[in-house]
Amino acid sequence: MSAFPNLKNDRLLRAARGEVPDKLPIWVMRQAGRYLPEFMEFRKDHSFFEICQTPQLACEVTLMPIRRYDLDAAIIFSDILVIPQALGMVVEMKAGIGPVLPEPLTLENFHELNKTGAVDRLKYVGEAITLTRHKLEGKVPLFGFSGAPWTLMGYMIEGGGSKTLSKAKKWLYAHPKIAHKLLELLTEVIIDYLVMQVEAGAQILQIFDSNADLLNKELYTKFCLPYLKKIRDSVRLKLDVKKLEQVPMVLFAKGAHYCLPEQADLGYEVLGVDWTLEPQVVRTLLKGKNVTVQGNLDPCALYAPKEELIRLVHKMVEEFGGQRYIVNLGHGIYPDAPIESLQTFIETVHNIRI
């Protein structure tokens, strides 16, 4: 493999490391996906997991928003549920429903999970990352990512999305030893998966704990924080052993406002925050912590008239301040978000002097 092209725009990596970039960096969760007309056209010929599992297709979709917008990062097109797939579970993407696992994890079939060789079965993600790094030609850095142990556990036990996660939470209360065993297994796979992504060319990593909002502080402290810390520490250690460059890591625990200071002590360079938190509250909770903040415009703000959207962006940036800040939405962009609104969002951020 030839050396990757030199990076031309490093403002997001600079902000992640606590340095001062020339402009505020911005990217958007789910920026490569279903709000883009070109993606919807692409999907007519390819299924969702076909795109995820075919490096050339994943690369093409990853580049779509980069061609259209002046974003400061790309994120590899994949899905957090490729890990349950690699462990032997069937995951289907159903139109209008989302991900479905037809045979959910139970206490009885838990032993059938096949951890051996799981990361080898995810090599297609690494191949997509390597190809994309070359195709980006150094324009912006490339994110790799994974779901967090608890979020993956939730999907695996519930068999898909859930408003309560009551079946998964039942394990935490009624079967804590088995829950810890599952979370440990997932943690070990995630660590090796993320290291593989860096080996393949990922320049920054994000952990999505999208179901954190359905736990309380006691449960999150017991069943999430230790594993999130192990992921950060072990990835750092394995990168050193492999003599690979240390990359910044982002933790986005949606709805886990109840333990933001504790998250800041885990060693992640960046913490993502959702749209329910006021910037001043975030900065107060994280005062004295060595961490960059990422977020947190309400995704629905993109439906606002242009002038109102500009006002909301200015207000958010002013309240967060320009230091140690990466601009993003407070969750993923919605499928019907107006594409011109995202253009306004990006231009407004880049026009703000810091």
Which features characterize this protein?
single chain; about 350 residues; alpha/beta; 7-stranded parallel sheet; two-stranded antiparallel sheet; about 10% strand
Walk me through this protein's architecture.
Strands 1-4-5-6-7-8-9 form a seven-stranded parallel β-sheet. With 354 residues, it is an alpha/beta fold. The protein is globular, with a radius of gyration of 19 Å. The protein has helices at 11-16, 37-43, 48-53, 55-68, 82-86, 123-136, 149-158, 166-174, 176-200, 217-223, 225-241, 260-264, 279-285, 306-320, 339-351; strands at residues 74-75, 92-94, 98-100, 142-147, 204-209, 249-253, 270-272, 292-297, 325-329. The protein contains 15 helices and nine strands. The N and C termini lie far apart (39 Å). The mean pLDDT is 97. It is 45% helix and 11% strand.
Radius of gyration: 19 Å
Q: Strand share of the residues? A: 5-15%
Could you give the order of the helices and strands?
HHHHEHEEHEHHHEHHEHEHEHEH
How many angstroms separate the termini?
39 Å
Q: Could you tell me the number of beta strands?
A: 9
Helical fraction equals: 40-55%
Structural category is alpha/beta
| Poorly predicted ranges | none
List the strand order in the largest sheet. Answer: 1-4-5-6-7-8-9
Shape: globular
Mean pLDDT, all residues: 97
Biggest sheet descriptor: 7 strands, parallel
User: Number of helical runs?
Assistant: 15
